[in-house]
Specification:
- This protein has about 290 residues and is an alpha+beta fold.
- The protein folds into 4 domains: about 90 residues, Chitinase A, domain 3 (Roll); about 50 residues; about 60 residues, no CATH class; about 55 residues, no CATH class.
- Helix content is about 55%, strand content about 15%.
- Strands 1, 2, 3, 4 and 5 form a 5-stranded antiparallel sheet that branches.
- Strand 1 and strand 2 form a beta hairpin.
């Protein structure tokens, strides 16, 4: 189901907008937002479960305890009250999957069996991508933990500044005000510096592996990557390539792709042990 809600947040009986003016805007007040109740992780843990069975004109107050790593530091571990007023409930109508419906949405050449094959293939690709990403993360963690050497501080500082800018920009997009960002300045800088150390260290190791193994990036792969950047920037290819040669972008792209080649090399040598995932347990309740 999809519900249309207006939500107001409070802390210890005081409106959140007054108690913590710098708190994320979506916790202070939302007016007639749409929520898909199936997506538990899209908002706050326990929020959707507390809305099960809600009807138009119903009003519920949900007590939500925020995680210890919540992005707004002042609210970490605290319990806020979200008062939700329901303006309407919209049920999703799933159409019957018929040959006629399939041709309408996918063209005359599409059949039910072809659609099933494409869905299976899409699921398989997502699983492979998730497995590959997990392998990459494990390789990075292993390199960072097992290889020790002194890092060039100037390079770490530049990467830390880049990471700091990214964290601040992402926080502002989530509704965190400049005043609150300043309060979290030390924490943000520490997080950015730690990530910078990992990035610089792992990149250096991958560069050395690429040199030792004489890895190279095919010219066609570089050209394809540059063409994709030009397309995203909506810049004519000829103009883009001329600028890329002047500003060093081609070398940067080549370097990034070489690190990817080194990562793929390491993953090809890695020994993978498959484990069964733990069963998940969840309790759903309504108020």
């Amino acid at each position: 189901d999809v519900v249309v809600l207006s939500v107001t947040g409070s802390l210890d009986g005081q409106p959140l907008s007054e108690a913590m003016p710098g708190a994320p805007a979506h916790l202070k007040e939302m007016k007639e937002n749409w929520f898909l109740l199936a997506d538990e992780d899209d908002f706050l843990p326990g929020f959707y479960a507390g809305l099960v069975g809600i009807a138009k004109d119903d009003e519920r107050t949900l007590n939500i305890t925020l995680a210890d790593d919540f992005n707004f530091e002042a609210l970490r571990g605290k319990t806020i009250a979200l008062t939700a007023k329901c303006h309407g409930v919209k049920n999703k109508a799933v159409p019957e999957i018929t040959e006629e419906f399939i041709k309408k949405i996918a063209g005359e050449e599409m059949t039910l069996e072809t659609l099933r094959d494409e869905v299976r293939d899409a699921i398989r690709r997502r699983r492979e991508q998730a497995r590959d990403a997990a392998k990459s993360n494990q390789v990075i963690a292993h390199l960072f933990e097992k290889v020790e050497f002194e890092l060039p501080q100037e390079v770490v500082n530049r990467e830390a500044q880049r990471r700091t800018n990214e964290i601040a920009q992402r926080a502002m997009q989530q509704g965190i005000g400049e005043e609150e960002l300043m309060k979290q300045q030390d924490e943000i800088l520490n997080s950015a510096t730690n990530q910078a150390r990992q990035n610089v260290k792992v990149s250096f190791i991958l560069e050395q592996i690429a040199k030792k193994e004489a890895l190279e990036v095919p010219g066609q792969k570089i050209a394809m990557a540059l063409a994709q950047i030009a397309e995203r920037q909506k810049t004519p290819a000829k103009k883009f390539m001329a600028e890329a040669q002047k500003n060093g972008l081609i070398d940067n792209v080549r370097g990034d792709l070489l690190l990817q080649e080194a990562m793929e090399f390491l993953k090809s040598k890695a020994i993978v042990e498959e484990t069964e995932p733990e069963a998940e347990h969840c309790d759903t309740h309504s108020k």
